[in-house]
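Quick one - inputs below.
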Amino acid sequence: MVRNIVALFAGLVFGLGLCLSGMYNPQKVLGFLDIAGAWDPSLAFVMGGAIAVAAPAFALAKRQRRSWSGETIEFPPTRPIDGPLALGAVLFGAGWGLAGVCPGPALVDLGFFSSSAALFVVAMTVGVFVHSGLRAGLRVRRPIAQDA
Amino acid sequence: MTLDLVHFTPLASLCGGVLIGGAAALLILGAGRILGASGVYAGAVQTPAEVWRWWWLVGLVAAPLIAKLVGNVPAPVFTVGPLTLAAAGLLVGFGARLGSGCTSGHGVCGIARLSPRSLAATAIFMTSGFLVVFAVRHLAN
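Output:
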């Protein structure tokens, strides 16, 4: 119960942050990624502000065993920088550059009743299932990838 | 490189970033989970029994509706056609899972907890994004 309420507010505040920062708008994200054109550095300010607030929270979370909801606090297992990480980031960045859309903004844009956002989210969902299908097919014996 | 001072919004973007960081702080301290949009979303559609992820999604999608009550939030502008959008969505969904994270999971939470993997992933996907935009906007034309 506590966890669901916390998650609801975390989603809401995250979405409001994307709205206020302008990052829900693919055009603005592309303005950041176009360093050779008229460059809009706004996204760097978003990341700077977010990291400045999140860093002390993670430092505190590392010293605590349980969250307010009583669940254990889970961090991704420490793993080396490997091929899948690099290839995944290359492909992710390519998709991000093609449309100026990443998962958070895509989901928040559903709240604008945007058919383009809906199409992107459907394709993104297919991508998620293609990945898990390939993994199952290859029988990769690795611990299940945690949310970074 | 020239600065696009017409669209540059340092204060709003910094404040929006503070909210995004606050949301990540809330989820780790309150629910013990890292706020990576791709990871939470993939978990929602692949293990629907853990309902907290769906509550997160409800909050996320409700955000623009609430934001529009308080201020002027114009509709997002998608600049590419449906085929490119679908290809981009596939790449983003697949790439984020293979690379264990996206802009929020690696770029915000991972860097905030000084994860070397997340620093590497963020550097790689930013470079990849810069190169693709450069190719599309400046080489193709």
